[in-house]
Design goal:
- The complex is a heterodimer of chains A (112) and B (113).
- Chain A is mainly β and 112 residues long.
- Chain A contains no helices and eleven strands.
- In chain A, strands 2, 4, 5, 9, 10 and 11 form a six-stranded mixed β-sheet that branches. In chain A, strands 1-3-8-7-6 form a five-stranded antiparallel β-sheet, with no helix packed on it.
- In chain A, strand 6 and strand 7 form a beta hairpin.
- With 113 residues, chain B is an all-beta fold.
- Helix content of chain B is 0%, strand content 55%.
- The radius of gyration of chain B is 13 Å and the shape is globular.
- The chains are: A mainly beta (112), B mainly beta (113).
- Chains A and B meet through strand 4, strand 5, strand 9 and strand 10 of A and strand 4, strand 5 and strand 10 of B.
């Protein structure tokens, strides 16, 4: 039973437009939510996070929104660039031990 | 430039053989995670250590997998005996806070024939 779900395996966006990646979760005890970015043949790299007590966090072109009532978060990339093409993983932290659980990822393709 | 180092980067072995993957976490990080990436399951958590103590290895097949941290500079993941279904990329990651911000190694790609 997946606690962190990314229902879209892939997303294609035109350069300069907005990319919206979605993530749903089932455990209301999650403390932090994070997005990681992964290029082929590399390990994932941390992109942006949000605490469960906030509803928005922004870092440059990247903004993460959290809707706790819907158990939903999203990552907005504006404007999208070809270099953003990668697999994006949604992740959540829970428990005093800081267990980190990932979704299955969404492959973003930004076309020039 | 601090980074997590994993060896080997690639490993091809035959079914039944023992496989050991090694990870050197970033100095000063007190948490170490092992993940496995497959097409079907995405990033699966296998094991998690804090201050070298195992906290969670519930995602790991206990009969064939084992994870240890002999010291603060080395984490190992061992598969014995290996099976074709173990073929995947295995990632090690380290961090020092409970916020989920981890640094990942480049992964060890395992192929079991």
């Amino acid at each position: 039973d997946q606690q962190v779900k990314q229902n879209s395996p892939s997303l294609s966006v035109q350069e300069g437009r907005i990319s919206i990646l979605n993530c749903d979760y089932t455990n209301s005890m999650f403390d932090y939510f994070l997005w990681y970015k992964k290029y082929p043949a590399e390990g994932p790299t941390f992109l942006i996070s949000i605490s469960s007590i906030k509803d928005k966090n922004e870092d440059g072109r990247f903004t993460v929104f959290l809707n706790k009532s819907a158990k939903h978060l999203s990552l907005h990339i504006v404007p999208s660039q070809p270099g953003d093409s990668a697999v994006y993983f949604c992740a959540a932290v829970w428990g005093s031990q800081g267990n980190l659980i990932f979704g299955k990822g969404t492959k973003l393709s930004v076309k020039p | 430039d601090a980074r997590v180092t994993q060896t080997p980067r690639h490993k091809v072995t035959e079914m039944g053989q023992e496989v050991t993957m090694r990870c050197q976490p970033i100095l000063g990080h007190n948490t170490v995670f092992w993940y496995r990436q497959t097409m079907m399951q995405g990033l699966e958590l296998l094991a998690y250590f804090r201050n070298r103590a195992p906290l969670d290895d519930s995602g790991m097949p206990k009969d064939r997998f084992s994870a240890e941290m002999p010291d603060a500079t080395l984490a190992t993941l061992k598969i014995q005996p290996s099976e074709p279904r173990d073929s995947a990329v295995y990632f090690c990651a380290s961090g020092r806070r409970n916020t989920g911000e981890l640094f990942f190694g480049e992964g060890s790609r395992l192929t079991v024939l």
